[in-house]
C-alpha cells in the first residue's frame, strides 16, 4: 500500500506581535498601580513641607528685617520733629508799669477762658483792681514749672503785688507762658507737637479706645475678633463700613508702609503690629499713635497728632479741651477730610455725638454729662491754622538761628525756640497796617506798601515786624531787605553831632535859615529848600529840629562836618558802607532798611546806649537742655547828655512840630518822634519812641513812584493807629549829670539870647557847672555894678 505524502504546512501571514507581559511582570505592574495614591499624597506632603520651610524661612528673614526696622525706628528718634517757635515770655513783677487791661489782653491772646471763679489751668477772672488766674504748666527755657494759682493786684501805677493763692504768700515774679507761634524746618509736609503719653487727657484716650479699638489692652497687636466682627458688619451692609485693624496695625501702616490696598501690605501690617506689641509696652505704642494719627490738613501741611490738632482747631493745649471738643477730634480719626469741621460742621457734629454716645455706653460719661456735651456747639476757630505765624519775623529768626545758634541748632530734632516777639505789639501793628494803608491808598493810589519794625527801647529785642501791606504774605520782606532813602530821619544824628560839642552848640544856638547853593564836583549846583518853601532868617537849633527845617540842618551839618556826622551815624548803628559822604546825605539821601533805622533809633531812645537788635532769645532741646541763650546787653556809644538833648528836641517834634498830630491824645506820655519824607514824596517814614518801644514805620511803592504822602500824612497815621490799640508808656529819661535848665530872652527875630533871669527855659549841657557859676556870679552886687557902670 502506498504511503501518503504529507501536505506542506501553510505559512501564517505575518502579524505585528505585541509582546505580552510575563506573569511576573504583570504582578509588578499591578503592585505599582496599587501604591500610586499613597505616593502622590506622600509627595505632596513632602512638597508642602519643603514649601513650608521656604515660607517659614522667608517669614523668619522678613521678621528679622522688619524687627530691625521697627527697632531702629522706635529706639531712635521716632519722628522727624519740626522746631517749635514761641513768643517772648511775659514776666510780671511787683512795681512793674503794666496795666490790668494789658495783662487781660495778654491772657485773652493766649486763649485763657474768663470765668467767675478759676478752677483749672488756663482760666482767669478779673475785677477793676485784681486778676485771679491759674497759670498753665509750661516748660520754660529755665526748666518746667507747674501750674500756679495766683492773684495779681493793680493800682493806677501798675502791678503792685503777686500772691500765690495756694501757698498764701507773696511772689517776687511770675512768668506767663509764651504764645505758640508756629514751626520751622520740617523735612516733609508733616507737622506735629510731640506730647508724652501722660500729657494726653485720659478721657480722650478712653474715647479713642471705645471708638477705634476697645480690646487694645487685651490683644497682641492683631485682633481676630475685631476682624471677624468687621466682616459680619460689612457683609450685612454690602459694603465696607467698618475696619478690623487695631490701633497697632494703623500705627504700623502709617509709620512703615504705604497706603496701597493689597493683601501683601495687610500681611506686612499685621506682622509689624505683632512685632510692635511684642517689643514695646501698650502705653509706648499708644503714645506713638496719639502723636502720629493724621487729623487733617491746612496750608499744604498735614496735621499729625492730637496735640497739634487741638491747637489748629481750638487754639488751646489739649489738656484744656472740653469733653465734647476731645470727642470731635476722636471722631475725625475715621476720615479727617470727610469730617472737616470747617467745611462740614453738621457732619462733624453728628460724628462727635456718636463718639459721645459710645462713651456713655462704655460708662465713660454719665447720661447727664452726655447731654451737656452733645448740646454744645463745635466752638472751633474760624480758620484752621497751625499758628499765627508772622512771615517777616520768621525770616529774621531763621537768619539769626543760622548766624548765632550755629551748630547748636539742628533741624528735625524738635527743638524749642524762644523769641522776643511781643504778641500784643505784633497783633496791633498788623491791624494798624491792615486798617490804615487802604485808607491812605485813596490818596496815594493802589499798590501802597508798608513795613514796620518795633523793638524794645532798652534791650533792642524785636517785638514786632511787618514786611508788607499784606501782613500774612510770605514774600518780599521790606522790613529787612528794602533799602530806601530815609529823608529827615537822618537829622537827629546831625543835631546829636553838634550837641556833643557843648562849648560850641546848644539847643538855643542860632542857625541860619537863608537860601544857599552848593557847587558839586562835576559843576552841578545843589540848592536845598525847606518843605514849605519858606525861609525864616534865623532860628534856634531846637526849633529847626522839631520843625524838620532843611536849610538850617544843612548849614549845621556843614559846620559840624560830614566826617563827624558819618562817625555819629556809625556809632548809632549804621554801616559805614551805606553812607556816601556828600552834602545831600544831610537831608537823608542815605538808603537804609526799616530794620537798620530801628537800630539807629534804639540807640537814641536808650539814651545813647546801643543794644544789638535780636529776635532770638533761647534754643532748648527736647531734654530741656539750654543750647543757646541771648542776654540783652548795651554799651554807651555817644554821650548821654548830647543824646538827652537830642531826644528833648524830638519830643518838641511831637508837642509842637511835624508830629503834633499825636500830642492832643498823648501829651501825658512825653513821646519823642521824627517824621521823614524823601524826594518827591516817594518814601514816608516815622520813627516813634515811647517808654516801652521804638517803632519805625515806612510807606512807599515798589515801583518807586511818588505817592503824595509825607511822613506826617502817611507813616505817622499808621503809628497813631497802632498807639490807639497799644497805648504807650510814658517816656521819661532821667536828667543826666551836667544837664541843667538855662534861661533865655526871646528876641524879636525869634532867636534866643542867654539871660540868667530870662523867661525862656531851655536845657543845656553845662560842662563843669560853668553856666550855673556864671549866673551866680552875675547875681552878686559886684556884677550888678559892672553891668551898670561898665567896671
Query: How many helices in DSSP terms?
Result: 24
Q: Give the overall form.
A: elongated
> What is the first-to-last residue Cα distance?
219 Å
> How many DSSP-defined strands?
34
Q: What proportion of the residues form beta strands (DSSP E)? A: 15-25%
**Number of spatially distinct domains:** 4
* Residues in helices, as a percent range: 25-40%
Largest sheet: 6 strands, mixed
Radius of gyration: 41 Å
Mean pLDDT: 89
CATH superfamily of the largest domain: DD-peptidase/beta-lactamase superfamily
CATH architecture classification name of the largest domain: 3-Layer(aba) Sandwich
Outline the low-pLDDT stretches.
Answer: 1-12, 14-19
Description:
With 791 residues, the protein is α+β, with helices and mostly antiparallel strands. The protein has four domains: 88-179, Penicillin-binding protein 1b domain (Penicillin-binding protein 1b fold); 183-375, Penicillin binding protein transpeptidase fold (Orthogonal Bundle); 430-461 and 477-613 and 634-725, DD-peptidase/beta-lactamase superfamily (Beta-lactamase); 739-789, no CATH class. 39% of the residues lie in helices and 19% in strands. The chain contains 24 helices and 34 strands. β30 (683-689) and β31 form a beta hairpin. α3 packs parallel to α9 and α3 (202-212) crosses α10 (345-361).
